[in-house]
Amino acid sequence: MAGCAERASIRLLGRVAVTGADGEFEPPPRTWGLVVALALRPQGFEREELARIVAPELERTSARRRLSRLLWLLRDAVPDLALSITSRRVTLPADAREVDVEQMLASARSEAADDLELALQGTSGALAQGCDLPWVVERRREVTAAVRDAIAKLASWHLAADRPAEAIRVLAPRQAEYAGDGELLGLRLRAHLALGERAQGLAALDRWCEQSGLEEERLPPHLRELVGQLRGERDEVAYHEPRPTAPPHAWQAFAHGCGPRGDRRGQNRAIGVLRQAVTDGTLSRDELRLVEIDRALDEHALALAERLLAMADADSGAVAVRRARLALLSWRLDEAVQEASRALVDHYCEGEREARVAALLVQAAAHSRRADKRDAIASAQEAHRAARDLGRADLELAAELAHGRELLRQGRFAQALDRLDPAGARAEELGLARVELDLRHETARARCRLGELDIADVQQRDLRQRWAELGYPAREAAAASEHAYTLIRAGRIAEALEATDDARDLAERGGSPEQHGWACFYRALALTCRDGMVDASWRAALVATERADVVADPGLVATSRLLIGLLDYLADRPGEALESLHEARERYTSRDEFDHLPLVLAIEGLAHLARGEVELARDATARGLREIAQLGASDFAVGLHYAHARVLEACDRPEEAGRWLSRGNELLREIAREAGLDPMALAARDPLTRALTAAAAARTLDDTPASAARRTSSDRRP
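Structure for Bacterial transcriptional activator domain-containing protein, as requested:
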């Protein structure tokens, strides 16, 4: 059976109502849950499932009778509702209704200010206010969370646009509804600070504390700092070491806060005080051990962390989180996921929200390293939401770092930069030095991959110095290796080799086989790009490959295969080169890692060309161009344009080859102009693409497409 086919407008926010051709009708309150379910799931329900939703407390037969009664009441009260009812299913087809919640959610998920305003204007109340069916309550939570995110996005947008009064307009009416939300409070306090409204900001804080039941002293550090600015006491409210006579829990909190700030001396002092507390009997040895494990993991002292964990309470959820961190740092990824999952269950049962965020962060990183990209992003986003709800800026920024690293792993460099750059600035503002440097490290990586080599060089020099000052050799080793890669691409090979030597020494001192492996790889790459160093290149490449197999870092293994393929190609062994390159490509694509994939495809194309396999060569370089277009790595794109042109020359397609050379030249001029360099100097700068770029650029930089085509036709290279 079906009702009237007229399209109905359904209001679910606030009081439920349906507007159709005959006017507005309010269904009986007892049918509201039924209306919500049918309106939000246009594909409909089996009767059994719908009966459980509308009558969860009744047994099966009674629930079905209740459903039949509610359907009769609803059709009688709202004749304009085009229900489709059969003996098995009940449906409200999508083309028969418009639902305010769907429209509001679509606007709330947008990033545009106008859409966000529209979403907030459409929130006239909670979803089916007054209906307490569990299914509806769950949907209500989802809608409330979406509205809250829209509020935060719109207020942040107004603050970024220097419109703090507008941010307060958005935030103030909803403070009571989202009492206890640290991020919304922080946005409001920042807005009052921007307007110089100290009294109003402190009054808003007092109301927030009253509504949430939280005392000001228990606010997280970044909110206390904002409060201090409102009171003109910024220096006094910032991070402080407890008094020597303070209770042990204060020193525990201080020790945990030292980690994100990179304050190793403060952490060591705290541990000294806590050890005395154990001696005095005011702190348990297990509580001390957790702080000592955290310090060992922060410093990458994995053997020490392993010993300390062996002595810890095996059934503790807090210990499970730390076991997961150790497994992650040791590249035991399946174990890391299992331990993090266990910790999530334990801490959910115990109500330990901060520990749950820590477990989610480990899970996100482990999923990323296993190339489980959906799970990695989902875990990072869940950790971000949970940290934001807690008002813990350090954990929130750690979630941004996990999300940004996964984007980098997938080769989405511009998106990663957009996420990581502001997060790094925020970490700097909050004095979270270690978190800030981790974020800046990934930002510099993104800039290098996007061809912004000069900016990356400056950032990485600063990173190396600051990691050295903080005393984290493993992290300093990672910064030195990445700096070496930037220097290689900038053609500064001697400096790159010095950086790889530093990286190897630091990795050994910091006990990081993973970073030692990467240092060996970058050393081999630098030697490959240096004239007359073929034997040394091969020796270094073999060492890098051995290290990659030992560490079991899939990215390092794939990149080592790429290096062997490049060396075979340069040694005029295209068959052997293709074997290694195919393996590297399979490893990259199976893990959705696209950082070096365009370079693999370019060398593959040239290797096929050297074997006379012109169709395979054209397929490889054409795919490389598609991949580079998605990555946005523009200076690599120049070399790929020229490689594709070489292949097209061999295919006897001179006009098409000329067009690709011309496009490459235009791109080269554009990049050179932005970098303030001469185009030919830029073409010869990066050894990885210099062989492709410089020769072609020298021939055609000032040519028109037609003349370039004629020249390529008569001047083919093998």
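The CA atoms of residues 42 and 94 lie 5 Å apart.
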